[in-house]
């Protein structure tokens, strides 16, 4: 190979190449850009440079100076995260070699002719000859500019938007569940995470991470992110709800200050303050109402102990009786925490928490079909949607990995094997 330091292309060389290629000089601009391949040392110095295929969202984030970061432990696939999205990153091959050449000019920028230059605003197409414009031929290629290739690429990183990977939030926070100040001496302090530490560890964007904390009702206690022990959370929320009747509050007139003050000495101020924020939403009056979906789901989880089955009517009756007046049970509140099976001899309901299922799609499907042989879309969707992408929905996943049949006008999914 002839390296760049051994050879410099001249104007005569360029003219000879143009003639051999049988190109029309009138269709060429004044400046030729001679491209030189890198020598071994130059290529080695650029060895850490990689190409990333970025969509409009990633480009907007970079141009706005916002955070764009790679995340992934040794045993995890790498993802790239913006402030609001998560992308799976895969290495893809380029069919042809791609050359990186700094300051390489586009064709029109290499011309001094007002006809061929976009500055003249007359003709920006290099396909139009000067003869068509009634002009005499313009002398072309009288200048040579050296352009060095700094790296040759044969692959690049391909990005595909994916759902946030929340499982790590659960796995890490379950190790240090909060069950009251009296039990804090049992918690391994080295396993506690600050907000930023956990955000840097979990493979999702900041906005998605905050949504994940809300989804799993994780709160910040003494500058550490904690999940609440199920029994402790149930007891605290029950005490809070009891104040509705004691103070004769309407359901949309809950007072936060009174609630926090009433539980002083029973539940730490910071804890009840954060739990209140999770389980309520503001009203137009400036006060609050409890979120019926979260309250009902919490009480359902309390009843649905692992492995137990309940007759559907008995369960619905018990569930309703445990709730304060004004709250009404609805099967939709069991989404992701319990399943209803009306196909057997005895209609029943059992607990099945999405957070407890395997994180591998195929293994999860095996578990689901062992639990229940037949699923409709509404039933199985909350257990599969974490594997979806903007271009791959639940129905597409099920079409690939399950068999389907139509029973009484309803599509049913069964195991493929």
Description:
There is one protein chain. The chain is an alpha+beta fold. Helices cover 32% and strands 20% of the residues. The chain has helices at residues 11-20, 40-45, 56-63, 167-173, 195-201, 206-215, 230-246, 256-262, 269-279, 292-303, 312-322, 361-371, 377-384, 394-401, and strands spanning 31-36, 69-71, 79-81, 86-100, 143-148, 151-162, 219-221, 224-226, 280-282, 288-290, 309-311, 338-341, 348-351, 375-376, 402-407, 410-415. It has a 4-stranded antiparallel beta sheet with strand order 2-3-4-6, with no helix packed on it. It has a 3-stranded antiparallel beta sheet with strand order 11-13-12. Strands 14-16-15 form a 3-stranded antiparallel beta sheet. A hairpin with a 2-residue loop joins strand 7 (219-221) and strand 8 (224-226).
Residue share in helix: 25-40%
Whole-Å distance between the termini? 58 Å
Q: What's the mean pLDDT score? A: 87
Structural class: alpha+beta
The best one-word shape is elongated
Q: Outline the biggest β-sheet.
A: 4 strands, antiparallel
* E-strand count: 16
SSE ordering: HEHHEEEEEHHHEEHHHEEHEHEEHEHHEE
Strand arrangement in the largest pleated sheet: 2-3-4-6
Rg calc = 32 Å
Number of helices: 14
Approximately what portion of the residues adopt beta-strand conformation? 15-25%
Low-confidence stretches: 118-138
Q: Concise description?
A:
It is built from 14 helices and 16 strands. By secondary structure, the protein is an alpha+beta fold.
């Amino acid at each position: 190979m002839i390296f760049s330091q051994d050879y410099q292309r001249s104007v005569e060389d360029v003219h000879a190449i143009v003639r051999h290629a049988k190109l029309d000089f009138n269709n060429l601009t004044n400046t030729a850009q001679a491209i030189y391949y890198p020598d071994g040392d130059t290529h080695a110095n650029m060895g850490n440079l990689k190409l990333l295929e970025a969509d409009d969202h990633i480009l907007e984030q970079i141009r706005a100076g916002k955070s764009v970061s790679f995340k992934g432990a040794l045993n995890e696939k790498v993802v790239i995260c913006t402030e609001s999205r998560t992308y799976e990153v895969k290495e893809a091959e380029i069919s042809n070699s791609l050359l990186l050449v700094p300051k390489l000019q586009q064709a029109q920028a290499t011309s001094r002719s007002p006809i061929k230059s976009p500055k003249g605003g007359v003709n920006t197409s290099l396909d139009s000859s000067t003869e068509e414009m009634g002009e005499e031929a313009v002398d072309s290629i009288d200048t040579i500019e050296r352009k060095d290739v700094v790296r040759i690429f044969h692959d690049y990183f391909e990005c595909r938007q994916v759902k946030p990977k929340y499982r790590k939030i659960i796995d890490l926070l379950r190790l240090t569940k909060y069950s009251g100040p009296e039990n804090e001496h049992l918690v391994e302090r080295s396993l506690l995470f600050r907000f930023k530490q956990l955000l840097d560890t979990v493979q999702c964007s900041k906005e998605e991470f905050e949504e994940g904390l809300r989804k799993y009702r994780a709160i910040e206690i003494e500058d550490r992110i904690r999940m609440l022990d199920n029994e402790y959370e149930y007891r605290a929320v029950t005490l809070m709800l009891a104040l509705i009747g004691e103070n004769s509050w309407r359901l949309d007139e809950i007072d936060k200050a009174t609630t926090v003050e009433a539980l002083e000495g029973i539940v730490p101020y910071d804890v009840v303050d954060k739990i209140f924020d999770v389980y309520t939403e503001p009203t137009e009056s400036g006060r609050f109402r409890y979120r019926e979906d979260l309250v009902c789901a919490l009480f359902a989880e309390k009843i649905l102990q692992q492995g137990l089955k309940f007759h559907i009517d008995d369960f619905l009756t018990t569930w309703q009786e445990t709730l304060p007046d004004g709250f009404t049970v609805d099967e939709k509140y069991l989404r992701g925490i319990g399943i209803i099976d009306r196909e057997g001899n005895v209609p029943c309901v059992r607990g099945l928490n999405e957070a407890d299922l395997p994180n591998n799609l195929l293994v999860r499907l095996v578990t689901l079909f062992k639990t229940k042989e037949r699923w409709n879309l509404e039933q199985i969707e909350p257990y599969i949607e974490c594997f979806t992408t903007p271009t791959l929905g639940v129905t597409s996943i099920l079409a690939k990995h399950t068999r389907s049949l139509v029973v009484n006008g309803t599509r049913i999914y069964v195991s493929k094997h």
